[in-house]
Design brief:
Blueprint lengths: L1 E3 L14 E4 L2 E4 L15 E3 L5 E4 L1 H18 L7 E8 L2 H16 L5 E6 L9 E8 L3
Parallel strand pairs: 6-7
Antiparallel strand pairs: 1-2, 2-3, 3-8, 4-5, 6-8
Helix pairs in contact: 1-2
Length: 138
């Protein structure tokens, strides 16, 4: 078993690695749109209580996909290795169309299996998080 941390992706918000390899499978921990070393989250406006008052799902999508790419690369993998992506959205009705369009730009040549679910909230004030599995050595 190997554990991987990316020096480009944002720091985890808890005690877990960016990724862990078991056999030929690479499991990524939940990846959001935060940026390493910054408090501001791309596309998110917070009030004084830290609650979301406005957000841009497009900016968050691009940021989360870049974070996934950084973690894959730090783990010796790439987009072509992705086999399964679970997507968590906090507002399926308003955001799914934009998310789906942007997802197609990044995953057109790979097409991993995908499940998209709506959740009430995520651990940080974000609107999207991805959970990915990659298969290596194939």
């Amino acid at each position: 078993m190997s554990i991987y941390q990316s020096d480009k992706a944002p720091e985890p918000v808890g005690l877990y690695p960016h990724a862990r390899r078991v056999g030929n499978l690479l499991f990524l921990s939940g990846v959001g749109p935060r940026v390493k070393g910054k408090k501001e989250i791309p596309g998110v406006t917070l009030n004084d209580q830290g609650e979301i008052v406005a957000y841009d799902i497009e900016a968050q999508c691009h940021s989360v996909f870049n974070n996934v790419k950084d973690i894959l690369e730090a783990s010796g993998a790439g987009w072509r290795h992705l086999v399964d992506v679970t997507v968590f959205l906090t507002n399926m009705k308003d955001d799914f169309g934009t998310f789906n369009r942007i997802y197609a730009e990044y995953f057109e040549d790979v097409q991993p299996c995908r499940t998209t679910v709506e959740v009430n909230a995520l651990p940080t004030p974000i609107a999207i998080e991805l959970k990915c599995i990659a298969a290596l050595d194939f």
